[in-house]
Write a structure and sequence with these properties.
The protein is an all-alpha fold. It has one domain: Non-ribosomal Peptide Synthetase Peptidyl Carrier Protein, Chain A, CATH 1.10.1200. It contains four helices and no strands. Helix 1 runs antiparallel to helix 3 and helix 1 packs across helix 4.
């Protein structure tokens, strides 16, 4: 399994376990997490804490955009991009 696929599985598992709305309806990689009400503003903060601790990245205020958190696919791409950055630019 590639790193991207592993990241996607971790993110999906977290969302399914943490957010009741994700368990009530089937979500896939492109389900609109914010627009569908799966994750609310407090949920975004919980998701950020999970991403930072699980993937050893730092999410800045500027990166808290609806695009980055729109779906599991977008979250996975965001994590992969952050992990590809040199450590010095992750401040």
């Amino acid at each position: 399994m590639s790193g991207t696929e592993a990241h996607k599985k971790q993110i999906q598992l977290f969302i399914t376990r943490k957010f009741p709305a994700a368990r009530k309806r089937e979500i896939n990689d492109t389900t609109p997490l914010l627009d569908a009400g799966i994750i609310d503003s407090l949920g975004v903060l919980e998701l950020v804490a999970f991403l930072e601790s699980s993937f050893l990245i730092k999410v800045t205020d500027e990166e808290l955009t609806p695009e980055n958190f729109a779906s599991i696919t977008n979250l996975t791409s965001f994590v992969d991009q952050k992990r590809a950055q040199p450590a010095s630019s992750v401040s």
